[in-house]
Amino acid sequence: MKYTEEHEWLRPEDDLIVVGITEHASEQLGDVVFVELPDAGTTVSKDDEVAVIESVKAASDILAPLDGEIVEVNDAIVENPGLVNEDPLGDGWFFKIRAEDATAIDEYMDESEYKDFIG
Amino acid sequence: MSDLRRTSLNDLHRELGAKMVPFAGYEMPVQYPMGVLKEHLHCRAAAGLFDVSHMGQILLRAKPGQDAALALETLVPADIAGLKEGRQRYALFTNDAGGILDDLMVANRGDHLFLVVNAACKADDLAHLRAHLAESCEITPVRDRALLALQGPEAEAALAALVPGVAQMRFMDVAVFDTVFGELWVSRSGYTGEDGFEISVPEAQAEVLACALLDIDAVAPIGLGARDSLRLEAGLCLYGADLDTTTSPVEAALEWAIGKPRRPGGARAGGFPGAGRILRELQEGAPRRRIGLRPEGRAPMRPGTDIFATAETDTPIGAVTSGAYGPSIEAPMSMAYVETGHADDGTTLYGEVRGKRLPATVVPMPFRTASYKR
Question: Which residue among A36, A56, A82 sits closest to B299, beta carbon to beta carbon?
Fold first, then answer.
């Protein structure tokens, strides 16, 4: 599992990478009430705003962590945004991306580095 | 947050695990560990306790030979002279341009009036009262009392367990009770769309009273976050967001706060600041109007969202002033000001959210039916 400074987690799964937001992020956001996801099949570049998440407090953008193609999205969190708070690392995942360069994930933080990052 | 003022419940908020934020010059709880969404739902299902001690409490007492109600009527369009003893009414301080300086509650307590005003406006309101009513009234800010709100379907049972007399009160009644918590000034009112009470309590006893209420199973502490979504579902305006010095009572759809005797043909017609504009708008309508909007999708339309008449037109016809997800209606909701020609219920309008025009329907407010005990 890798972590970005945008508080996203990346977990390799077969030849794809699953992306979600961290528990820390979900706690900071508060209750999530709205999620907008990209269409499966969308080609994205790193740092593109690919998804939107709104909590009771504010709206935030979810950035593409890597260049690649969004191959699957988690419609369950669109139907039930509360899943993002209940299970941010599991059922609350956002999308699966096929990275152009799967090794690009290595630049991101590992768990201990992320823990230091959020202090 | 060292420059911020603290209410007498500050220590209690911290013990309860509140997240404290600056609000109107005070350090206030925005949420407790339960979180905004669950706090909102708890208040609708059981009872919520709010610290609203930051709000201003002011006593208005007539000087010899004067009449406090008639004096106050020179500053508000409400019918204050017709307000019976033991009753409370919503009012607006207007300015000479017909805009709104603040919204407030006025209670008739027999030999004086009791005013509750917004925290952010209270210094200006006091100055305004002193500038205009000093000759007719003694104006006394109450600085040694906290203010609690207890709201929700279980509020009556909870408060009546400590102060039995409150069960006899109806919506907008006010009464004074001598209790072990000192003298309580209680009104059957609130700002959530729920039945409930607002309780002015001596600061020294505020924490004991709050703890006694929180000891009751049904009662949970509720922060400012849920207070905002509760009042928005109830269709109630937030001063500074939905009302300001440029919005008139008619634009704000608050005609009901203009008393019948203060209207054209009434016994005390006009005689408040901005009466010319406000009474003209009452008869002819205003160019813009506060409306309720229900977005068709799930995306909330936040304050500042531009509103358009169609999906294509370039010029906005208005903007959102309050917008959030409504936990009880399980949908997004917004208040907006739009040109009056587009304000009819059922009209489809478009809000621009992240560059996309999203449809929303003009709906009557409240978004959720209130459950006051009338």
Answer: A36
| Domain boundary assignment for chain B | 5-53+144-233, 287-374
Give chain B positions within 8 Å (CB) of A56.
36-37, 225, 229, 324-325, 327
Annotated binding residues of B for substrate: 198
How far is the alpha carbon of A36 from chain B, nearest alpha carbon, in Å? 8
Q: Are B214 and B48 in contact (CB under 8 A)?
A: no
Per CB-CB distance under 8 Å, the chain A contacts of B322 are none
B298 touches chain A (CB under 8 A): yes
Spacing of C-alpha A56 from chain mean position: 19
Contact B174/B109 with Cβ under 8 angstroms? yes
CATH number of A2-101: 2.40.50.100
pLDDT in tens, B301-310: 999 999 999 9
From the list A54, A56, A59, the residue facing B36 with the nearest CB is: A56
Interface predicted TM-score (ipTM): 0.82
- Strand duo B5-6 + B26-31: pairing: parallel
In this complex, do B298 and A59 lie within 8 Å of one another by their Cβ atoms?
A: no
CA torsion sign for B211, B212, B218, B219 is negative
pLDDT, tens digit, 9 for 90 and up, residues A87-99: 999 999 999 999 9
Nearest to B35 among A31, A34, A54 (CB): A31
φ and ψ at A19, to 5 degrees?
A: -125, 135
Q: For chain A, first and last CA: distance in Å? A: 18
Residues of B in contact with A54 (CB under 8 A): 299-300, 325
Give the separation between CA B45 and CA B41, rounded to whole angstroms: 6
SS (H, E, C) chain A: CEECCCCEEEEEECCEEEEEECHHHHHHHCCEEEEECCCCCCEECCCCEEEEEEECCCEEEEECCCCEEEEEECHHHHHCCCHHHHCCCCCCCCEEEEECCHHHHHHCECHHHHHHHHC
Lookup: tokens for B276: 């010319």
Tell which residue, B201, B160, B159, has the closest CA to residue B51.
B201
Interchain CB distance below 8 Å, A34 and B325: yes
The pLDDT-based confidence of B374 (bands split at 50, 70, 90) is confident
Can you tell me the mean pLDDT for B185-214? 98
Enter the tokens of residue B232: 């928005």
CATH 3.30.1360.120 fits B5-53+144-233, yes or no: yes
Cα Rg of chain A, angstroms:
13
CATH code: domain B287-374 is 2.40.30.110
